[in-house]
Design a protein that fits this description.
CATH architecture: 2-Layer Sandwich
Number of strands: 8
Structural class: alpha+beta
Shape: elongated
Number of domains: 1
Order of helices and strands: EEHHEEEEHEEHH
Number of helices: 5
Strand content: 25-35%
Helix content: 25-40%
Distance between the termini: 43 Å
CATH class: Alpha Beta
């Protein structure tokens, strides 16, 4: 079964090949909920799994005893393939989309400038740079569910917002990290499609 088109809230993307969550549980031995190890899943974790299942996405690693609220996937974006982690706690659900690169010490300041420019404009989520652990770069989205209900569309939007932001700025980070491109110019190309960093529309 090939990639299928997924439409959520008016946005259309190609999702990875569908693998039903029920079939994954059977094939990989994740048959019980609670799990064979006696681990009970939090209701928010079950809602995350339901949202992933409804989208037809393939789970790489299910929740386990060491990370009972964490689900990992590999997601094919337009610019790259990303490792995605969805974490569910109480009441926060958050998603990390890891960009497939590490920032060397010599380029951390330039990448930090690009991140600051991007985060100022983005309305949902933000880029993170790990200064202490090899320059890992990721995009983070989150939802505070509190007394509300976590729906499948909310879970899917949480992931897709992260993937779309990573896709949008992927090439800009490549240019800054490996091409020594000025972060202001790389940002302007990614955000507005031109390289004039001085002429930007005002933030609305």
């Amino acid at each position: 079964m090939g990639p299928r088109t997924l439409s959520i809230c008016g946005a259309t993307r190609n999702a990875p090949s569908a693998t039903n969550w029920q079939r994954q549980r059977s094939e990989r031995g994740w048959d019980s909920m609670p799990s064979p190890r006696g681990m009970r899943l939090h209701p928010l974790t079950k809602a995350v799994l339901a949202g992933i299942d409804d989208a037809g996405w393939t789970i790489h690693e299910p929740p386990g005893p060491e990370a009972p609220g964490t689900v990992t996937m590999t997601f094919d974006g337009d610019a790259s393939t990303y490792e995605v982690e969805v974490h569910s706690g109480d009441p926060l659900v958050y998603c990390y989309v890891m960009l497939p690169m590490r920032v060397p010490d010599a380029r951390i300041a330039a990448v930090a400038e690009l991140i600051t420019r991007a985060n100022w404009e983005l309305r949902s989520g933000n880029f993170d740079l790990n200064w202490e652990n090899g320059g890992d770069l990721q995009f983070r989205t989150s939802i505070n569910v509190c007394d509300g209900q976590l729906t499948s569309h909310m879970v899917q939007r949480l992931v897709l917002d992260g993937v779309e932001a990573a896709d949008r700025f992927h090439d800009a980070f490549i240019q800054v990290v490996f091409g020594n491109v000025d972060p202001g110019r790389a940002f302007s190309i990614a955000m507005y499609g031109d390289d004039d960093a001085d002429e930007r529309p005002e933030r609305g």
